[in-house]
Design brief:
Largest sheet: 3 strands, parallel
Mean pLDDT: 88
Strand order of the largest sheet: 3-4-5
Shape: globular
Number of domains: 1
Structural class: alpha/beta
Number of strands: 5
Helix content: 40-55%
Order of helices and strands: HEEHEHEHEHH
């Protein structure tokens, strides 16, 4: 979901410093890509130190999965997902918010936090924790608007790789999977960024 959002922002004339890990992002006059491991607090701090000028928008939509039934989940799979999705978000909020005097922060969670996810207790727990994290940062930084987006399941990225049994359960609970453009439009609306087409 991150790449379509980067492209939409750049198309609207927003200068974007885009972090990526597994899938590279092409550099353009509007986009400066940075390879980043969000689980490493020192690298996250370096990323924000390298950004030129003020930070007006901070969008955090990173995430990984490592699915298994709770009773069979390996400790390293639990730790990897929580470290990336929750702790990594804390590191990014710490580094990004300290560079902001106002503006908007958007943190992407999941609709699954309300019901849990069959075979993905680590992912559900990591995304549920974001609510308390974002609310706390909002209380501490009243000049900045914080938005928590509980994103739907999408036919792209992690959503497209769900095992059939898990996908069937997700669709039975949350309805048909949506398209990345729906997510991009929602985030752009929260930022107040106008684009001709998503």
């Amino acid at each position: 979901m991150g790449l379509p959002l980067v492209r939409a922002l750049a198309g609207a004339g927003v200068r974007v410093d885009a972090a990526y890990n597994r899938h590279s992002i092409e550099a353009t006059p509007e986009v400066t890509p940075h390879h980043l491991d969000v689980t490493n607090p020192y690298l996250v701090a370096q990323f924000f130190d390298a950004i030129r000028g003020p930070v007006d928008y901070l969008i955090l939509c990173h995430g990984i999965t490592a699915d298994a039934l709770g009773t069979r989940m390996a400790a390293h799979h639990w730790n990897a997902v929580v470290d990336t999705n929750l702790t990594g978000t804390f590191y990014c909020l710490k580094g990004g918010v300290s560079r902001m005097e106002g503006g908007v922060v958007v943190v992407v969670s999941s609709v699954a936090v309300e019901e849990g996810i069959y075979g993905a207790a680590n992912y559900a727990a990591s995304k549920t924790g974001l609510k308390g994290l974002v609310r706390s940062f909002a209380l501490e930084n009243p000049a900045i608007r914080f938005e928590l987006v509980e994103a739907a399941f999408h036919d792209a990225g992690m959503g497209s790789r769900l095992p059939p049994k898990v996908r069937a359960r997700a669709e039975a609970t949350y309805g048909p999977f949506s398209q990345p453009a729906d997510f991009v439009s929602k985030v752009l609306a929260l930022l107040g960024v106008q684009v001709a087409e998503v």
